[in-house]
Amino acid sequence: MKHYLHENKWEDIEKYLQDKTTIILPVGSVEQHGKHLPLGTDSLLAQEIAQDVAKATDTLIASPLWYGWAPHHMAYTGTVTLRPETLTNLVEDVLNSLIYHGFKKILIVNGHREANLPPLKIALGRVRNQTGAFIGIADPFYINAVAGKELSDVEPGGIGHAEELETSIMYDRYPDLCSPEKSVRNIPENHNKFLQHDPNVFTDKILTASDVAHYKSATNNIGVMGDATTADSKKGVVYQERMVKNLTEFIGYLDTLEVKIRQTNIPL
User: Is this structure's pTM higher than 0.90?
Assistant: First the structure.
């Protein structure tokens, strides 16, 4: 059996569901990642995580969702963003379709770190309350927080967007799509102490939104928030391995979890 849903026949899926009701759904974004990484970074990395976990656990992967919520990245050419309600509705329809066919446990792998979470959480809340299915989100900032902090060599403020960690995995998995010579360091020096964006910095924070003009200015017309110059493919290997290890363990837990579906819905 192939790991991706769309690579199988319908009767293959029917047979899979006789033994297992868990599936992984990669969700990403097509958005700028500085001058050194491709626009598809978030979606490519979500799929890399999903594929590694699927191989380790014999779990099916739903067809990836390439687009996400990225309005601030519209400051840079090539970015494509969905409205948040569009992403919520899209994910809700995909989840309901999968649950209708017999999937009871769905793990979303979010490659567009943190930014996709608001619309995704709304979709999860709706579908969980309607159906009773278990749905979780694996976001690298959270599922791999310990490894991220241990592996990072940058100063506080160095982890944000198109920086050390994202870049390190891309150097390992997609070196032909990367331009290391164009990597830069961009750590804001005059940040208010409550506006710290780095998840590795444990401090009191205020959440805020960014618009196109502010984001372009904050990223110095390049698109990087943090430090990409310390990225290393070996670091990317370890970071990915740690993340896959965590998710493999979690899939093992899901496989033993008893879930009762209350109702199913066909998106209409």
Answer: yes
